[in-house]
Each structure stands twice: as structure tokens, then as C-alpha cells.
Write a structure and sequence with these properties.
This protein has 123 residues and is α+β, with helices and mostly antiparallel strands. The chain contains four helices and seven strands. A hairpin with a 5-residue loop joins strand 2 and strand 3. The chain is rod-shaped and about 75 Å long.
């Protein structure tokens, strides 16, 4: 075989091995429990010298929350119920996922339908 081809094949082999090692590291990271920030509220307060400072209030970090738990927590904080577009905005989930979560939770009695597309917790 040509010497150049052998060198190119060795380089390709080294790159494949390096990529497989990186892939294994990514898999290890994904298997570890991840912290999820659910809500973040930003409030502004004024100091005595009229300079505005921002105080961040972050809800507690929650481990391994399901999509249903996240949606239920958002609805729990709303007094008059929550519509689907607000749930999409707050969670970042797609239409299909939101509808499936709401449908299953309503079937199990965890949610109550107030009107079309608006849900709250049962009393």
C-alpha cells in the first residue's frame, strides 16, 4: 500500500478514538442527576443613594422533577388557573408534551378544566 494512505488511515483511527472518548464523557455527564432551575423571579429595589440594584430570588433547585410535576407546580401558583400558552412559555415544552401532560393529569384528577384551554387544581 501507499505510505500516504497508511498515514491517513492512522490519523483517522486516532480521531475516531478521540471522538469515542469524548462521547463516553458526555454519556457519563448525562447519567448524573442534573439540577433544574424551575422558576426565576427578578425584583428591583432602590437603595438610599437612588442606585437600582437587582435582587434575584431563585426557587429551590429540584432534582428529577417530571414534566407533570413542573406543570402542576406552575398551576399551583396561579390563583385563577393557567392556560396552555402560559404553560408553554414557563416550561419551554412543546404543544404535544403540554397537551399530553394536561390530559393525563386531568384523567387522574390532579387537574381540573375551568374552561377551554384553562386549567387549575381541584378544590
Amino acid at each position: 500500500m501507499d505510505n500516504n494512505i497508511v498515514l491517513e488511515l492512522k490519523k483517522i483511527t486516532q480521531k475516531v478514538i478521540a471522538l469515542s472518548l469524548k462521547t463516553e464523557k458526555v454519556i457519563e455527564v448525562l447519567r448524573k442527576p442534573q439540577k433544574i432551575k424551575v422558576f426565576e423571579k427578578i425584583t428591583e429595589t432602590k437603595k438610599e443613594d437612588n442606585k437600582a440594584s437587582i435582587n434575584k430570588t431563585v426557587s429551590q433547585e429540584i432534582f428529577h422533577m417530571t414534566g407533570t410535576d413542573i406543570v402542576i407546580n406552575i398551576i399551583k401558583k396561579a390563583k385563577k388557573g393557567v392556560n396552555i400558552s402560559l404553560l408553554k412559555e414557563k416550561t419551554g415544552f412543546g404543544d404535544k408534551k403540554i397537551w399530553n401532560i394536561v390530559f393525563r393529569a386531568a384523567q387522574k384528577g390532579r387537574l381540573k378544566r375551568i374552561s377551554r384551554g384553562v386549567y387549575s387544581l381541584p378544590k
